[in-house]
Amino acid sequence: MQKYDPHEIELRWQAVWERTGASIVREGPPEDNGSAAPRYYALEMFPYPSGDVHMGHVRNYSIGDVISRYKRMCGFEVLHPIGWDSFGLPAENAAIKQSSTPATWTYANIERQRASLKRLGFSYDWDRAVITSDVDYYRWGQWIFLKFWEMGLVERRSSPVNWCPSCLTVLANEQVVGENQCWRCKSTLERKDLEQWYFRITSYAQELLDDLELLKGVWPERVRQMQANWIGRSTGAEVDFVLCDAAGEPTDETITVFTTRPDTLFGCTFFLLAPEHPLVRNLVAGTPYEGEVKRVIEAAASQSAVERSKGERTKNGAFTGRFVINPINGEKVPVWISDYVLMDYGTGAVMAVPSGDERDFEFARAFGLPIPPVVVAPDDPLFATLEGVRERRVDDVPWSEAFAGAGIMVQSGPFTGLAGGKDSAGAQAVIDALAQQGVGRATVNFRLRDWLISRQRYWGNPIPVIYCEQCGIVPVPVESLPVVLPMDIDVVRNETLASRADFLNVECPVCGRPARRETDTMDTFTCSSWYYLRYTDPHNDELPFAREAVDAWMPVDQYIGGIEHAILHLLYSRFFTKALRDAGLLSFGEPFSRLLAQGMVKLEGEVMSKSKGNVVAPEDMIAAYGADALRVFILFMAPPDKDVDWEEKGLAGIYRFLVRVWRMVHDLVGAACEDTFFEKGVGENAASAPAAAAAIAASAPALTPAAQEACALVLRERHRVVGKVTEDIERFNFNTAIAAIMELANATGDYLRLASPPSRMADETRHAFDLEVAEVLVKLLAPMAPHFSEELWQGLLGHDTSVHTQAWPDFDPDLAQSQTVEIAVQVNGKVRAHINIASDTSDEKLRAAALAAVAAQIAERPVRKVVVVPGKLVSVVI
RNA sequence: GCCCGGGUGGCGGAAUGGCAGACGCGGAGGUCUCAAAAACCUUUGUCGAAAGACGUGUGGGUUCGACUCCCACCCCGGGCACCA
């Protein structure tokens, strides 16, 4: 028997698969060498070419490869592509460090990763590889930018933005992590006012939220929750307050607030503006209040967002000297400013209801403002004294904190007695009343902000825009695309796109005068927001993708990737898909039908990272155990969505398992080899299941009773395990699928030990049975250990087509059943006996047998009840 | 504070309301060997000599029967957070 040599086998089969194009998708009608099979699109998040492939990649891509190979064996035409998300800042940093260029570094890493992925035997259609820094790809990103421009989804505006002082660029809100830190380098961010380019993702806020419902059950719940959270929809009302002049007389001006609690409007005793609110300086200019107001404004401005959100939240504030009129009751309330009011949410103005809002409550206590209760819980002692009070009398509450829950409205004029709370009947009644007078309206507010896509970096997709002194901001005409990124910018000497005259200077496409290009590039997340569409039509040089191609394959049937993209990439991709649908380029609204968020691979509880020096390199593991063992092990460690801790001893265990199966399959086949039977050809003799069952009975005399029993078990296991593995792969429980294969191997091992070759070779049918067991084992392992299985399938079993093109094994549940079953007998819920009994025993006989088995325990006590669970147990109650 | 996810042997983890701990790692003992490694066999939740008792974060409940369902709570991980 040949020794199991993973390296020799793996390299040899990888070469064969590459030569025969084993993973190339066959498209088009069958007569043109295409496929009539149903399509399946399996996709893993493409890597950033930061260096070597790491264990996280191995896990991600092993999962995707099992699904792809399994689906192919089930008869699907599978699209399983890969590519590289190759623009981005790390390339610039690495180039500086190595005195190279971002392009050199990036493309060298891509080649390294490509070699590693091939070494792992992943079944990608390499002809479709998409590299986002290739002009053939990013030109279509520019094309989509222009399409979005046409649709009004692109906007240039000045706003406060997050600036990373280390990466020297602005970031999108989604790229701010933890306590105001850069998602990539973890530096604390600064706030700047800059004019930047935005994609209007907020136009899709409602649909992005609504469609999360479609993803229920097929996307992980936590991802759906995170996105819903991030979009942050609040229902409520806008209310217009009339501003009074310095003398306290009403003016024509109104200030609008957003509130989720219009039912508490009667409890509004003051009004707040954000320190940055554009009205504030005018309101206080030249008044005695100016000094104090300015002090609060400056204090707020000097505080970083971290300081503002951290620690004690003491409320700073100042009275402006002005008043506004509460439209619901005509009361004049004072206008204050406070740093807890945010300019970029709602309208930057707030109606303060201290009895119903924790922050307003604190502020009122700090500055001695009244706190009249307007919504009170019926079980609050206060309720009895206020029930039915329509006019305000009690102007303070004996509470230590605000009451923000649902209750009954009091001291609220005509609304008194209605249910109060978020989205309550009372809230609706107040909105209706305000709407009737034209001073308020129902509205919805989102937390989601527009997507800031400008990056002040070189290594990215150029924003196709030209600035002309005459014509202003002009998009690059679509026929002038692509705007080619110079590949040789010298980042080592601080060269930038702006310092390159041949890039910067351009003719205005409208008036022809000298103009200059935009030198910012797009956020790399714009590149990864549609790459999965390009895979369906990767060589199209007229469009990003043809509609027929994209509609044929999309949406992705199964997407697999890390949880770190729960919001970023997955939200942006959903937005792109919806926008491209509205552009008429495709006909679906959600890109990923199913999502699997795989867990991380850690070492001693820590995230592996080069900087920590705690990295386990996949290539070291391949060198020691082979790619197949590594793939099987990483799937076996835990269910795919859980974090796992790397444990090399477990990998050694899987290697032992493969060696064991290797020997076992040789043993099953090798016995046959010595027999003339083998000469008829192994392939045609795999037994049908009923034939095998007959064989066990017919050839029984040749085997010892123990061997017969072991053999019968192998037959049952062969059917049970195929069923179990099929079900487990469908549910992505690869760990239990592998465990089940081990159980089949264990049963087979016992059979081989007990049935020594001479007796086992007593007849032909038994050989056929042996061969079938061998073939089933090999097929079950094929998606996970593709080279190992291919070698056994073609090299040993003698087939001349790939195991990966074979039909997935079927199974007969009836043959998985044993003739006899062990039934547990419980007395008062405790197992007291076991009985072995024919599996087709009637319930009555089973009941009688069970009662006999526990007669001692029952003794003289009367039996009150007997529950019979066929095939499982009998429960006796005495 | 709000919203998710999760607590099972020494470890990773299995279990449609039906014998908790499948499968693997690790441990112990053995076979083979001059010896070692490899391989193979037996064993391995805790207490107990055994019979047996106890055991899935805690406390209740439903049920003939609960890791699983219901209620309350504790702990761990993650996301959001002065969002009106």
Number of helices: 29
Low-confidence stretches: 672-687
Using the alpha-carbon principal axes, give the shape.
flat
Number of strands: 36
Q: Which range best describes the helical content: under 10%, 10-25%, 25-40%, 40-55%, 55-70% or over 70%?
A: 25-40%
Strand content of the residues, in percent? 15-25%
- First-last Cα distance: 61 Å
Walk me through the structure.
- It is a single chain.
- The chain is α+β, with helices and mostly antiparallel strands and 878 residues long.
- The protein is built from 29 helices and 36 strands.
- Helix 26 packs antiparallel against helix 27.
- It binds one RNA strand of 84 nucleotides through helix 7, strand 11, strand 15, helix 11 and strand 32.
Overview in brief:
With 878 residues, this protein is of the alpha+beta class.
What layout of secondary structure does this protein have?
Elements: H1 6-20, E1 39-44, H2 55-73, E2 77-79, E3 83-84, H3 89-98, H4 102-119, E4 130-131, H5 135-150, E5 154-164, E6 169-171, E7 176-177, E8 181-182, E9 190-199, H6 205-210, H7 221-231, E10 233-244, E11 250-259, E12 270-273, H8 280-284, H9 290-302, H10 305-309, E13 317-325, E14 332-338, E15 349-352, H11 358-367, E16 375-376, H12 381-386, E17 407-409, E18 419-420, H13 425-436, E19 440-446, E20 451-452, E21 454-455, E22 461-462, E23 465-468, E24 472-475, H14 501-504, E25 505-507, E26 514-517, E27 521-522, H15 524-527, H16 531-534, H17 547-553, E28 558-562, H18 568-582, E29 595-598, E30 601-603, E31 606-607, H19 618-625, H20 627-636, E32 644-645, H21 648-673, H22 689-698, H23 705-730, H24 734-754, H25 757-760, H26 764-781, H27 786-796, E33 820-827, E34 830-838, H28 843-853, H29 855-858, E35 865-869, E36 873-877
Helix pairs in contact: 1-27, 2-20, 3-4, 19-20, 20-21, 21-24, 21-26, 22-23, 22-26, 23-24, 23-26, 24-26, 26-27
The structure holds one RNA strand of 84 nucleotides.
